[in-house]
Design a protein that fits this description.
single chain, alpha/beta, Rossmann fold, 7 helices, three-stranded antiparallel sheet
Length: about 230
């Protein structure tokens, strides 16, 4: 994890003269926040999530969890901006997805030369961000996550039996074309198979969404010793 934190701090330090959209993942990737040096964080930073679990429960909602970290509280005091994906009222999953996309596009219009940095995790099933592997319909998978017109997709993955089935997440075109740098951090021996599938020469995004790391502009994958 130390090397992943060093890389994240290096990216933020190098981008201090630019506007930065820092997109954070939940799960084990949240551990990286404890190591961010606050001297690399200022008013040039906008914070949001890479994907969101559609839940009003603050223990489940990714942005709510991030907002409770010491890093976020310190960053807020330093004047950062944010694109909030917490669910404050009766809003549908697809309405939240449209709101999230509007926020991302508004940031890009305002800062056309801005840099997008993200943290990514990998699930035991090979997912990354909120993109869960397809168990049945590859056409539906492509329609959701390969649509060039959309940066965000909202969907229900109940059939996959994932723990949090209702998701809103950035799409593959966004990850390929808009994210300038990514720090991917994987921990836990149960994820060994997923990492092997990501690193394999052949494979599909539908079965292993984490393989998108191979297609992104500047991604560094860090794994812990258990892998």
């Amino acid at each position: 994890m130390r090397k992943a934190i060093l890389e994240l701090n290096s990216l933020l330090r190098e981008a201090k003269a630019r506007q930065v959209l820092l997109m954070l993942s939940g799960g084990s990737a949240l551990e990286l926040l404890d190591g961010i040096q606050m001297r690399n964080v200022g008013k040039n930073i906008t914070i949001t999530v890479l994907d969101e679990r559609f839940s009003r429960d603050p223990a489940v909602n990714n942005f709510s969890q991030i907002a409770e970290t010491e890093f976020y509280k310190k960053a807020e005091r330093k004047g950062i901006n944010y694109i909030d994906t917490r669910i404050h009222r009766k809003i549908s999953l697809h309405a939240l997805s449209r709101k999230f996309e509007r926020g991302l596009r508004a940031w890009r219009r305002k800062y056309p030369e801005g840099k997008i940095i993200c943290t990514q995790g990998i699930g035991e099933d090979g997912h990354t961000a909120g993109i869960i592997p397809s168990t049945e319909n590859s056409k539906r998978f492509d329609r959701l996550f390969e649509n060039q017109k959309h940066w965000v997709a909202g969907y229900d993955a109940t059939r996959s039996k994932t723990e949090y089935p209702k998701r809103t997440t950035v799409t593959f075109p966004f990850l390929r074309n808009e994210v300038e740098s990514s720090v991917a951090y994987v921990t836990g021996s149960k994820k060994r198979r997923a990492v092997k599938l990501i690193l394999a020469k052949k494979g599909s995004l539908a079965k292993t969404p984490g393989r998108i790391l191979r297609e992104m502009k500047n991604t560094t994958l860090f794994v812990d010793q258990s892998l």
